[in-house]
Amino acid sequence: MDEIAWETVRDEFAFDGSWRDIYVFGTTIADWQRMLDSVRSAGYRLTYFRADQPTEMPTKAGDAFPPPDEGDRRLSVSVADVSANCHFFTVEEIEFDTDPREVKGQQELTALFGFMRCLAEATDKEVVLTAENMQKSSFFGPLLGSRRLSIGRSAVGKLGGSEVDGDRPLHLDRGDR
User: Fold this and answer.
1) Phi, psi dihedral angles at 18 (to 5 degrees)
2) Rounded Cα–Cα distance for residues 36 and 33 (Å)
3) Is the residue at 6 inside a domain?
4) In this structure, is residue 13 part of a structural domain?
5) For residue range 140-171, what is the model confidence (pLDDT) as tens digits?
6) What region does 69 belong to: left with phi over 0, alpha with psi -120 to 50, or beta?
7) How many domains does the chain have?
8) Per-residue pLDDT tens for 80-98?
9) Which of these, 43, 36, 42, lies nearest to 62 by C-alpha position?
């Protein structure tokens, strides 16, 4: 499998005081269920928290969300040495945040893209990686229904003409996880 080289995109993970967010938009509780089932079966190390205390992960996605009078639910997924944390904000979008300082090289980058592919395949929806709370400006995103990974416009401008031709994003062919 061809990979996007770490050196090509490392600046997207330079720590600027903010996290990086992974989003799946337009989700339903059924998408959440498929996502949770998928990350369970993929063999990622999962830790579910309630009030900052580790507890058993609910089987049903609807039970993972806090009741209206409570908050503070979190699922931490260990992706290589990168923690992806989901806070169960709303049923309408799946959001994981990551600390860019944990993406230190090719191994972590490849694992993070593999996690994004896992989410895309589970939900059959586009998955994007953005700067914190910058939902409309993605760095990277698998193209729905494709076996390719796209580098978004914000990253494309930093790659230069030798690697990307103007309006065309760079793609990564997907292989087996």
Assistant:
1) -125, 160
2) 5
3) no
4) no
5) 555 444 445 555 544 433 333 323 333 333 33
6) alpha
7) 1
8) 999 999 999 999 999 999 9
9) 36
Strands, sheet with 93-98, edge to edge from the N-terminal-most edge strand: 53-55, 45-50, 73-79, 82-86, 93-98, 20-25, 127-131, 138-142, 148-151, 171-173
Residue of 37, 109, 47, 111 whose CA lies nearest to 79: 111
DSSP strand pairing (138-142 vs 148-151): antiparallel
The mean pLDDT of 21-35, rounded to a whole number, is: 95
CB-based contacts of 147-150 (< 8 A; 24+ apart in sequence): 147/173, 147/174, 148/172, 148/173, 148/174, 149/4, 149/113, 149/116, 149/117, 149/174
Residue 71 lies in a domain: yes
User: Is residue 3 a part of any domain in this protein?
Assistant: no
Taking the C-alpha atoms of residue 44 and residue 130, their distance in angstroms, rounded to an integer, is 22
- DSSP label at residue 131: E
Domain with 115 in it:
18-170
170's tokens: 């760079």
Q: What is the pLDDT of residue 103?
A: 95
Give the closest residue to 32 by CA, choosing from 72, 82, 80, 87.
Answer: 87
Match 């090719």 to its residue by tokens: 106
**Sign of the torsion angle spanned by Cα atoms 18, 19, 24, 26:** negative
